[in-house]
Each structure stands twice: as structure tokens, then as C-alpha cells.
Amino acid sequence: MKTASTQISAHISMDTKDKLERRVRATGVTRARLIEDALLHHLQALEELPLDVVVPARAVLSAESAAKVRDLTTHPPAPTDAMKRLFDDR
Question: What is the reported pTM?
Fold first, then answer.
């Protein structure tokens, strides 16, 4: 028995498209099968994993948060004693 199907459309980066095409050529799996399997795996993981262990692939920052991140990366604070102990491999 064949399952009903539908078509979806999505905008993806050129890098992702290139990776998809390389995988399709290397395996012979159709684009549709590869995309459906990947989506099913992702959705299953989201259903089974606790929310606090799922790390989003992208973070969306407000302008204020982005400014804080930019400031911390361009002017990092001095390491604390605890941080020094953490990275001391002696």
C-alpha cells in the first residue's frame, strides 16, 4: 500500500544544497528520500530528547544581545581563578 504524499518547498543555503547533491551522487538515494529521512530523524530526536539538551543550530539575537556578544568577544574579561584552574593541565 502506497502512502499519500505531498510536496513542500523550502529555501536552503547554497552550501546545504551542495552537500545534499554530493550525498545524492555518492549514495544514489533520491533527494526526496534523503530529505524525508533527515526530517524524520530530526523530528524524532526533538520528540524524544529533553528540551534542555537540544542545542539550536542557529541563535537569533536581539540588537542589544548582539552588541553584548560583540563587546565580550572583542574585549574579553580577564580569566577568573576558577577558569585558570579549569584550564591548568599540570
Answer: 0.59
